[in-house]
Structure formats: structure tokens, C-alpha cells
Amino acid sequence: MVSFLLLLAVVDLLVAEFSSLGSLRPLRVGAEASLPTWFSVMNLTLAALLACAVAFSERAHSSRLWPYWLSLAALMLLLSLDESVQIHEQFLDQGAALAPGLPQIHSHGWVLFGAIFAVAMALAFAPFLLNLPRPLMVRIVVAGGVFVFGAVGVESFGAVADYYGWLEREDLAYELRRVVEEGCEMFGIVLFNCALYGHCASRGLRLQIGST
After folding, report:
1. Residue-range domain boundaries for the chain
2. pTM value?
3. What confidence tens digit (pLDDT) does each residue in 117-146 have?
4. What does the pLDDT look like over 29-43, one tens digit per residue?
5. Does the first or last residue of the chain, that is N or C, have fewer Cβ atoms within 10 Å of its Cβ?
């Protein structure tokens, strides 16, 4: 599904670039009210539900890790909200004010907060990750790494490219960079959900809506 949405986004960009038809907003990555954004919001919400299910199961078994699982669920819900209403965009000016010596990121000032937040979450969840079964730990770390690479790494490259004029906003190369950025985020979420779903299946957990 991720590959299909990204392919549609690339085709839409190419059609807009080389014809007079223009771009279809519902297919654009990173845009509000678009299919890729809807997909990311739904997947982050699913991640929150899966992590919450594991948290309740861990609590029932008196595991000391259940608060971490519940915190992870809350984090996924927060990311889902941010993806939906673009909260991080409100930190553009604050990022520029916080790092006046880094004019390269001023056009994307929120990436500084994103990097700080990512490091803080990594440190906060390190004890949790080290106590997970190794295969699950590796899958979660890889999923998080892919997501952060897109959300912070590729976005930071876009800021630098914008500052030095390597890429012009709204041109094809700039928009393709956004496809890479959002694609990494989407793949990261899917990898995370696959890791959680496999963990739930191994423990015999099921998400059920309605009465038994």
C-alpha cells in the first residue's frame, strides 16, 4: 500500500511537471486532506491501539514494562495527531530563534525540535528496548530509525538545499525529496506495526471490537 501511494504521488508529480493538467492535491504527500496523510494517520492510530493492547496484557501479567508500552501508545497517538493537524509546523520561528547560528535550517525550523525530541525519546525508551526480546527490539529500532531518517534527516537536507539554492521550492526535484521524506515515515510506521502485530500474535493477543 505504501509503495502504491508513493507511486501515485510520483506519477502525479510527473504529470504536473510535463503536462498542463496540474497536480491532484489528494495524491500529494505531506499535504493535508490527502490519501498519504490519511494513510499515515490511520497507521499511527493502529500503532497506538496495538501498543495499548500489549500494555494491558503486560499489566495483567504484572510486567514492569507495561508503563513503557502505554507511553509508547500515547506517543503514537501524539504523532497521529501531529500528522493530522501539522502541530510541528508551529515551531518554525522558535527553531530559528533557538539556533540563530544555523540559518541553514531556518526555513524548516521545527527540525531542531524534531531532532531534540527524537534523542529524548531514544534515551527515555532505552531501558525499555534493552528489556525486550532481541528480535522485537531490533525491529522497533529499525522502524524508528527509518521514520526519524525521513522526518528529521531528509527534512534537514531539504532545509539546507533550500538555503543554498540547490533545490527550488515547488520544482520536481524538491517535491521528489518530499516523497522520499514521507515515504520513509510511512515505511517506518508500517515496519513498527508489523513488529507489534508479530509480538501480539506470538502472545496470543487479539484486538476485538464488540462483544465476544
Report:
1. 40-202
2. 0.86
3. 999 999 999 999 999 999 999 999 999 999
4. 766 667 888 889 999
5. C
